[in-house]
Design brief:
The chain is of the alpha/beta class. The protein folds into 3 domains: about 110 residues, Glucose Oxidase, domain 1 (3-Layer(bba) Sandwich); about 110 residues, PtsI, HPr-binding domain (Enzyme I, Chain A, domain 2, Orthogonal Bundle), CATH 1.10.274.10; about 270 residues, Phosphoenolpyruvate-binding domains (TIM Barrel), CATH 3.20.20. It has 20 helices and 16 strands. Helix 1 packs across helix 6. The two termini are about 55 Å apart. The relative contact order is 0.09. Bound molecules: phosphoenolpyruvate and magnesium ion (MG). The site of magnesium ion has 5 residues, from helix 17.
Length: about 550
């Protein structure tokens, strides 16, 4: 067995035989010509043929990988019409009296080198697109067909690199996996592989290419980026099991998509997702979450060297709200402090930061920061259904103060004619024992509660969540925690508020029944747990 390592770009396992991708690379030779006009005409004819081919590839991609991913072939068609690219070909033919193939080949080298030298990884990846369209043009000039594989069975395609058009042109039904010696994870080939749901590994290196042959037996682990050629029995058994588990998991995912979160006796619950960055929205949609129950806005502060501006925040919140298309999005105001330290906040060093100036305590003492965030949130509210949630609440006076500040921010915006939605919901996190115990007094002040079981556990059990040594003492199912949640649920409902759980405990399926019986209205969990929790909800019968 030989193991090669590359970068997995789509997590799945493939087991099967290898087919080495054969490309009929036309060896371009420099030929002196006399009839330049005829050569330019050849270029025009080849361009027309290449465009026709790209249109067919675009149509195939549209069906297989969707509009967004097919768009690259529209870009290729546009690149073929690019003035600089065409002028270069024309100039070389006219100035050097050479054949069209040679002029295209030199232009391709020049342009792709220019892109490859750019700092931005997006533009670097475009070098491959230039080569792709140029090779197509040369093939059309020489009447060559593009590459192929020799096999009829489903195979693992191995290549030096695959151009986007080559990737899409392959018959998806015959491809088990892609493995390339080179390539970048930013390339469209990688993106297409991901969207075709085909395990793919890139960058396994030149050695792999030299030794791999048609018919070799191999395993591709797209999760780890490993390729096992001629695997031993142990590896085969281990990876076969991993493949089966993965298929079962994905099947569960597929089967449950679009289904309701409803128990056998008809009780419904919302299952939302927790995110920490705008980039996580894809996972939220993929896993069919009904909304976002906790957007930890800290990332905006943590990834900046200075306070994020109102505009920066507005753009981020707007993007999340628009992407969720009217589904509820609960954005939590900043929860800096304790384990999330940000230098430019210049917070004093504290003996016990978890019980120090963190979260809402910063917002109430540094209201300029708070008001900037609230303005950005209210401005974004017109783009969807927004809920604003405040962390680390311990008292009624805090909540009253928060609501006063919210009123004052909205009043300013009214005067300035800045629109905001009237249906913004306001809620608080129940993550201190104090908040749970006085939840009867807090509930009338808000629209919802969201239980932060991570902090509620640490503060109730006096167990530092940052200290791994304390883990043996942490009983996440501790009766004290469950009683506090139940108390908060009863008080919320008494006063017309709804209650969710956004701490990690929300995804603990051994407690789903307990939470439903308490009357919890929403569970907000990591995107990858949404369907697992849905599965559990749909198995429960609360009438028994
Ligand atoms: C929690 O405390 O349970 C929670 C959801 O907030 P965080 O983990 O961000 O403190
Ligand atoms: Mg918390």
């Amino acid at each position: 067995m030989i193991t090669y390592n590359g970068k997995g770009v789509y997590g799945a396992i493939a087991i099967g035989h290898v087919s080495v991708y054969k490309r009929q690379d036309a060896a371009v030779t420099r030929i002196e010509i006399t009839d330049k006009e005829a050569e330019l005409k050849r270029v025009e004819d080849a361009k027309a043929k290449a465009t026709e081919q790209l249109q067919a590839i675009y149509d195939k991609a549209l069906k297989e990988v969707g509009e967004e991913n097919a768009a690259i072939f529209e870009v290729h068609m546009m690149m073929l019409e690019d003035d600089d690219y065409n002028d270069s070909i024309k100039n070389i033919i006219e100035a050097e009296s050479v054949n069209a193939e040679y002029a295209v080949s030199i232009t391709s080298d020049n342009f792709s080198e220019m892109f490859a030298a750019m700092d931005d990884s997006y533009f670097q990846a475009r070098a491959a697109d230039i080569k792709d369209i140029s090779n197509r043009l040369i093939a059309c000039l020489s009447n060559n067909d593009s590459g192929s594989t020799s096999s009829d069975e489903k195979v693992i395609i191995c290549a030096d690199d695959l151009a986007p058009s080559e990737t899409v042109s392959l018959d998806k039904e015959k491809v088990l996996a892609f493995v390339t010696a080179f390539g970048s994870s930013n390339s469209h080939t990688a993106i297409l592989a991901r969207n075709m749901n085909i395990p793919a590994i890139i960058g396994v290196g030149e050695e792999f290419l030299k030794s791999i042959k048609d018919g070799d037996f191999a395993i591709v682990d797209g999760f780890t980026g490993e390729v096992f050629v001629d695997p031993d029995e142990d590896t085969l058994a281990k990876l076969t099991k991993k493949q089966q588990d993965d298929i079962a998991k994905k099947k569960l995912l597929q089967d449950l998509k679009g289904k309701e979160n409803i128990t056998l006796d008809g009780k419904k619950i919302d299952i939302f997702a927790n995110i920490g960055s705008v980039d996580n929205i894809g996972a939220v949609l993929l896993n069919d979450a009904g909304g976002i129950g906790l957007f930890r806005s800290e990332f905006l502060y943590l990834e900046n060297d200075d306070y994020p501006t109102e505009e920066q925040q507005f753009e981020a919140y707007k993007k999340v709200l628009e992407s969720m298309a009217g589904k509820k999005v609960i954005i939590r105001t900043l929860d800096i402090g304790a384990d999330k330290q940000v230098g430019y906040f210049n917070l004093d060093k504290e003996e016990n930061p978890a019980m120090g100036i963190r979260a809402i305590r910063i917002c109430l003492t540094r209201q300029d920061i708070f008001r900037t965030q609230l303005r950005a949130l209210y401005r974004a509210s017109v783009y969807g259904h927004l809920g604003i949630m405040f962390p680390m609440i311990t008292s009624v006076s805090e909540v009253k103060k928060i609501m006063e500040i919210c009123d004052s921010v909205r009043a300013d915006m009214r005067v300035q004619d800045i629109p905001f939605a009237e249906n913004v919901e306001h809620g608080i996190m129940i993550e201190t024992p104090a908040a749970a115990i006085i939840s009867d007094q807090l509930a009338p002040l808000v629209n919802f509660f969201s239980v932060g079981t991570n902090d509620l556990t640490q503060y109730t059990l006096a167990c530092d969540r940052q200290n791994p040594k304390i883990e043996p003492f942490v009983d996440t199912h501790h009766e004290a925690i469950l009683r506090l949640i139940k108390m908060a649920a009863e008080n919320a409902h008494k006063h017309g508020a709804w209650i969710g759980i956004c701490g990690e405990l929300g995804a603990d399926t051994t407690l789903t029944e307990t939470f439903l019986r308490m009357g919890i209205d929403e569970l907000s969990v990591s995107p990858s747990f949404v369907l697992k929790v849905r599965d559990q909800v749909r198995k429960l019968d609360l009438s028994k």
